[in-house]
Amino acid sequence: MRVLFIGKRFYTNRDTLLDHYGRIYQLPRHWAQQGIDTRLWLIDYHSKQRVQQTQGALPIDSTPLRGPAWFAATLSTLASRLRGSERPTHIVASGDAYIGLLGWLLARSIGAHFVFDVYDKYDEFTGYRKPLGWNLFGFLLQHADRCWFASRRLLGQLGNPNRGDALIMNGIDLDHFTAHKMGAARQCFDLPTATPLVGYFGALNRERGLPDLIEAMRIVRSIDSSVELILAGKADAEITFDAPGVHYLGNLDHEQIPWALAAVDVVAVPYRRSPFLDAASSIKFGEIMACRRPLVATRTPNLLDNFPAQAAELDPYLAPPQNPAALADAIVRQLRDQKRVDPPAGMEWAAIASEALSSLAAACENQALNTLPRTRL
């Protein structure tokens, strides 16, 4: 088995190459560690420099799609990846529908098995287009040899179990997301040592419920004015931080997030309902649990479908979406109770990667059976 994994370099406000972030890095990394001939090709929509390096056993080529050299770099990458003994038997494409189309075209041109990895509802992305009404996302879902989905809702809505579509959830990097001492964490960000702190770390926008959280904290502070809100992440222009007791740490580096989690008494995830977020599988829930932080959240499919046992344990600390009063009640209750839950077993990246590799191996077996000569009776 020889695997070419094609993925997006910059996504969810992180750099796959430098942050070693997410499934696009972790799946091929663990396959390579297990001795599978694996290469990672990153498509870079933002910068202009091509990067070629090997991290551990994994060769990585990051190809920019900006600047005058992108076409030559892409041709060079294709030539080196698809010829002779290096030609992949399997191509996995992840990141958006356009990267999926690239993977499908390459797989069909060389006879490789094509896996379309759907970690989000790609047709809800801002940049998704339907030229002349053609639905590229739907085409890839129909014509892939196999699809992987990061959430149970996506699998249920879009998957085809008859061809072996599988749930391959996002995993937790347990070397990175681990519990730290609160005192040391607060020193890192120059936060007060004795003040009760509530935190949210991630994209700061309406869809993720930031106005609801800020209003909920206004209610909490009307009960106890000592409680303060700590925010970090990439913020939309419409989100303001001038409310009393609200502190914005900026857009933190990936390596700082576990320390930010450790610095607060309660972590809030106030997501609203939307087609995009309802179908997603936000691994931040698992990361919060792995860091042993008390969690408050809204009752959305993102949490309830993907972490059902944990959601049941946390039920007293869950609130309806877009209900600041109920969210405030949950925050006050969790500040008092400090209820923690463990993440689901098997959510570390090594286990998730092994599960995905089993899916690829099953594809190999099916491919071999389909190519056996038929015996006439």
Shape assignment: elongated
Largest sheet: 8 strands, mixed
Tell me the span between the first and last alpha carbons: 33 Å
Number of strands: 16
Tally of contiguous helical segments:
15
What is the CATH topology of the largest domain?
Answer: Rossmann fold
Helix content: 25-40%
Radius of gyration: 22 Å
Measured by DSSP, the beta-strand proportion falls in: 15-25%
Number of domains: 2
Question: Low-confidence parts, pLDDT < 50 over ≥5 residues?
Answer: 368-377
Under CATH, the homologous superfamily of the largest domain reads Glycogen Phosphorylase B
Structural class: alpha/beta
Write down the overall mean pLDDT: 90
**Gross CATH architecture of the largest domain:** 3-Layer(aba) Sandwich
Strand order of the largest sheet: 5-6-4-1-7-8-9-10
CATH class of the largest domain: Alpha Beta
What does this structure look like?
The protein is α/β, with parallel strands linked by helices and 377 residues long. The protein has two domains: 2-171 and 348-371, Rossmann fold; 182-337, 3-Layer(aba) Sandwich (Rossmann fold). The chain contains 15 helices and 16 strands. It is elongated and about 70 Å long. The two termini are 33 Å apart.
Short description:
With 377 residues, the chain is α/β, with parallel strands linked by helices. Helix content is 38%, strand content 19%.
